[in-house]
């Protein structure tokens, strides 16, 4: 079975107080985009095996996709004899949720492949045991996520937007990002900005464009801020870092406008650009 595993961007991310379980309370607006890894799952053989192409990711059972397959097999009684192939296009450790998307895609694929008939709520419950972003990828709609990211509300957003993603040569650890945010800010905020379940225009979205995790990222990598400014100079209506970073994106009224900006934009050495649309 072959399938695509899409990335996500955060259009709003606020970090609230730290929870007893070590996670932070967050509220974030999430949208999937059509920058995707290519994946395959094949039953048979012995054990859960992972074959990778592209950027290096955690191997074997350290990988979220393999752990998702294992929990699915244990909870459904299916033998843990599978081969998973991942052709990586989503940058790793970049704030785009690639590992979480791979895990969610494996859960959905195995549910189809073995005709186990689990509903999305059951699959999201499995995913939540492995990572905070995994339920969102099973949800498959733009969403407002709260709690540690697992409490989801569908949100309507405008269609047809183009996104120009800028990928630097460095990566940012999620744990470092949250720890540094706490150190720099105190990390005690209990409530966030009131957010709606409908943003009918791009102008509506721009009003809530925000990412608290830019605070730690910019303290170490000020070039992220410079690239946000470069995106705005090339016509982006807004620019933001996604998740814990470091990928930064510009929002455009259409894919064509994003492509036009890419042609004009001069990237620093070893930076890359990806153009995508929302799903």
Characteristic key phrases:
279 residues, alpha+beta, Ribosomal Protein S5, domain 2, Alpha-Beta Plaits, 2 domains, four-stranded antiparallel sheet, 32% helix
Q: Are there runs of 5+ residues with pLDDT below 50, and where?
A: none
Query: What is the rounded distance between the termini?
Result: 21 Å
Helix content: 25-40%
Can you identify the CATH class of the largest domain?
Alpha Beta
H/E element order: EEEHEHHHEEEHHEHHEEHE
* Share in β-strands: 25-35%
Class from helix and strand fractions: alpha+beta
The total domain count is 2
What this model shows, in words?
The protein has 279 residues and is α+β, with helices and mostly antiparallel strands. The protein has helices spanning 64-76, 98-113, 120-128, 134-139, 174-185, 202-206, 214-220, 223-233, 255-264, and strands at 2-18, 24-43, 48-53, 82-87, 143-146, 151-154, 162-167, 210-211, 238-241, 248-252, 272-277. It folds into two domains: 2-149, Ribosomal Protein S5, domain 2 (2-Layer Sandwich), CATH 3.30.230.10; 162-277, Alpha-Beta Plaits, CATH 3.30.70.890. The strands form two sheets. Strands 1, 2, 3, 4, 5, 6 and 8 form a seven-stranded mixed beta sheet that branches. A hairpin with a 4-residue loop joins strand 5 (143-146) and strand 6. Helix 1 (64-76) packs parallel to helix 2 and helix 2 (98-113) crosses helix 3. The longest helix has 16 residues, at 98-113.
Q: What layout of secondary structure does this protein have?
A:
Layout: E1 2-18, E2 24-43, E3 48-53, H1 64-76, E4 82-87, H2 98-113, H3 120-128, H4 134-139, E5 143-146, E6 151-154, E7 162-167, H5 174-185, H6 202-206, E8 210-211, H7 214-220, H8 223-233, E9 238-241, E10 248-252, H9 255-264, E11 272-277
Parallel strand pairs: 1-8, 3-4
Antiparallel strand pairs: 1-2, 2-4, 2-5, 5-6, 7-10, 7-11, 9-10
